Amino acid sequence: MQPKKSFSKVDYQRCQPKECDPNQGICKASKACTHKVMKQIDGAFEPPIVFQDLCMACWDCIEACPLKAVERMEVT
Fold first, then answer.
1. Domain chopping of the chain, boundaries
2. pTM for this one?
3. According to a count of CB atoms within 10 Å of the terminal CB, is the N or C end of the chain lower?
């Protein structure tokens, strides 16, 4: 039996990078990801994506998100 895999996921209904950084549109959760697996690949003011297979489950992004738009997800 394999252990559960945990990773971060973005709630795109809550995510609003312009509220995190009105001037530059930089997502605070993305910026806090020390493993660089959460990125705003579509540019500033756009929500980030999480490369879930690479997520190390450190939860820095969850703690950094002021809008509570980043959540923990577990897959069995």
1. 5-75
2. 0.87
3. N
Question: Around Cβ 63, how many Cβ atoms within 10 Å?
Answer: 11
Q: Is 43 left (phi over 0), alpha (psi -120 to 50) or beta?
A: left
Q: Is 68 helix (H, G, I), strand (E, B) or coil?
A: coil
Please give the angle made by the CA atoms of 47, 66 and 40, to the nearest 5 degrees: 20
| Tens-level pLDDT at each residue, the chain (76 residues) | 556 689 999 999 999 999 989 999 999 999 999 999 999 999 999 999 999 999 999 999 999 999 999 999 988 7
DSSP codes of every residue in 4-19: PEEEEEE-TTT--HHH
